[in-house]
C-alpha cells in the first residue's frame, strides 16, 4: 500500500463529457478519484485528465467535445 502525503485529501470529481452542439444533458458522466490539497486542485486535475484521455479527432477531423465539472465530494 502506498502512503499519501498528509497534506493531500481524497476527492471524487464528476466530469461530464458532451457535444456542445448536441446539448449538455446528452453527455456522459465520469467519476474520477483525485488526491489533492483542495477541491479546486482536484477539479483542475480531473478536468486535465478527462481532456487528455478523450478522443478529439477522427480521420484527421476535430471532434466537437466539451467538458464540465458536475460535482466534487470527499471519498
Characterize the structure shown.
This protein is α+β, with helices and mostly antiparallel strands and 75 residues long. It has 1 helix and 5 strands. The chain has one helix at residues 39-52, and strands spanning 9-18, 28-36, 57-58, 61-62, 66-74. The protein has a 3-stranded antiparallel sheet with strand order 2-1-5, with helices on one face. The longest helix has 14 residues, at 39-52. It is elongated, with a radius of gyration of 14 Å. The chain starts with 8 loop residues before the first strand and ends with a strand.
Mean pLDDT: 91
Strand content: 35-45%
Q: Please tally the β strands and state the result.
A: 5
Can you list the strand order of the major beta sheet?
A: 2-1-5
Element string (H = helix, E = strand): EEHEEE
Shape: elongated
Multimeric organization: single chain
Helical content (DSSP H or I, runs of 4+): 10-25%
Report the structural category. Answer: alpha+beta
Q: For the CA atoms, what is the radius of gyration?
A: 14 Å
